[in-house]
Each structure stands twice: as C-alpha cells, then as structure tokens.
Amino acid sequence: MKKRILILCTGNSCRSQMAEGFLKSFDQELEVYSAGTKPAEKINTKAIQVMKEVGIDISNGIPENVEKYINQSFDYVITVCDNAKETCPVFIGKVGKQLHIGFEDPAEAKGTEEEILSVFRKVRDEIKKEFYQFYLNELK
Asked: Which among 14, 63, 66, 91 has the fewest CB atoms less than 10 Å away?
C-alpha cells in the first residue's frame, strides 16, 4: 500500500518543497504532499535553482495551505521548521506518526548572491541526507 506523507513548513516555499521533491525522487510509489501554515505566493526561485542542480524540478509546485489537508489521513506528517511544529494544526483525519526534522530557513540568508546560494545548497544537502535516512528507516 502506498504511504501518504505530508511535509509542513511555514511558507511552503523552500524546505518543504525540497523535501517533497527528494522523497518523490527516492520512491515514485510514495504519495507526498507539502503545505504551509502561512503559505507564500510562490516557490522560492533559489530553492528551484539549487534543486535543478541535483536534477529535481520543483518549479511546478504551488505553496498550499495546510487547511486543505486537515481532514485527510496520512501515514506521516513531518514538520521541517520550528514555527510549523509549534503551529501544526490538529488533523481530523488519521495520522500514523508526526515527526519533526528541522532545518534552518535558507530564505533568511544574507550576503552576496553566492553566499545566499551556498546556504540554500547546504540546507538542500541536509534535507536530502535527513529525508533519505527517514526513507531508509521508516519507508523501506
């Protein structure tokens, strides 16, 4: 049976979108969704750029409000930022496990374009590592 996974962040424009992209790349049988407690208007362009560098296209993603999923059932609901963990709504649908795998927000990086991209790449690589471990330990 397919595993259903919801990844939550605040804006649903960087970390949750990258995590969704990685999980889908690990196993196309997974049903992976991402949402935000306060969704942004669009996906962060630097998140799109650094994911393309590793062969994953997240440019068609749309930040969505977690309210869309509140009545649905998931095997896992995973928060990737501390704010989403604190404001994570109560799900009416069945949720197997709620996990928190936190990462710094690359959208808050300051500096030159290259310094900012460096932070995005670092967070991207951390997300890949942590979510691959999650995949191996929980989903395989």
From this structure: 91
Q: Tell me: the pLDDT tens digits for 60-77?
A: 999 999 999 988 999 999
β-partners of residue 9 are 36
Q: Which residues are catalytically annotated?
A: 9, 81, 88
The strands making up 74-79's β-sheet, listed across from edge to edge, are: 31-36, 4-9, 74-79, 95-100
- To the question of pTM greater than 0.90 for the whole model, the response is yes
Query: What angle do the packed helices 45-52 and 15-26 form, to 10 degrees?
Result: 30
Residue whose C-alpha is closest to residue 80's, from 122, 37, 43, 45: 37
